[in-house]
Amino acid sequence: MNVLLKEHIEVKRLEVELRRLERRLGSQKDPSRREALRNRIYEVKADLGWALMDQREYKRALKLYRSLPWKSFGEVKFNGYARALTEMGFYEEARKFLEEGLKVYPDSYVLWVAMAALYETMGSYFEALECVEEALNCFPEDDSVALYNKALVLMRIGCYGEAREIMDELMERAPRDPKILTQRGYLALEMGYPGEALGYYQRAMKVWQEDPTLNEGISIYSGL
């Protein structure tokens, strides 16, 4: 199934669930059940906002994030706002927003990862590495995203050996992830091993053909 169609279906599914929950809330009288429904509505709004950003519908996404309460969804709001601002090209605004978020949530893995990704986008690679290390110091259950970002930054600054070690570890964890395979191929190419790179690209292409995703497909084709 085409990734754009999959994303569209996911948005529609979340929109239907949100409407259903809001109807239930309107007819529910029990205070505890109403509170549980409100929390579930906030969760669905956050998921829907994220899915809308996948489709570059940033205004709709931001409207949903604004409706979330700061007290119980502050970290989610900071992360959602920062992603929208970054992808819209408002880098300085996104940085200031993440700085505010990290003052409130200094041990937030997701906010440190977001800050690292922002700095990488801005070309501030050493600052990105510092943020990645802060993310890893939060000791998350799954540190794959931070490690992947660290490998990308190391590749940008020419530290290919360290990047390869991380990419190889990530491939052991997720041997069929086309994103990781593609970047491993790019790394091999940068290190001067075109034959090895081709092997990784071909593996990534095989996985991608089974479950196509647009951005990964573009990366693989550019590698080939």
Walk me through the structure:
By secondary structure, this protein is mainly α. The chain is built from twelve helices and no strands. The protein has helices spanning 3-27, 31-54, 58-66, 70-87, 91-104, 109-122, 125-136, 144-156, 160-173, 178-190, 194-210, 214-223. Helix 6 (109-122) runs antiparallel to helix 7 and helix 8 (144-156) runs antiparallel to helix 9 (160-173). The longest helix is centred in the N-terminal third of the chain and has 25 residues, at 3-27. The protein starts with a helix and ends with a helix.
The chain-level structural class is mainly alpha
The description of the largest β-sheet is: none
N- to C-terminal distance: 22 Å
Counted by DSSP, the helix tally is 12
Could you tell me the mean pLDDT?
A: 91
The number of strands is: 0
Percent strand equals: under 5%
Q: Quick summary of this structure?
A:
The protein is an all-alpha fold and 224 residues long. Helices cover 82% and strands 0% of the residues.
Topology:
Blueprint: H1 3-27, H2 31-54, H3 58-66, H4 70-87, H5 91-104, H6 109-122, H7 125-136, H8 144-156, H9 160-173, H10 178-190, H11 194-210, H12 214-223
Output the keywords:
224 residues; 0% strand
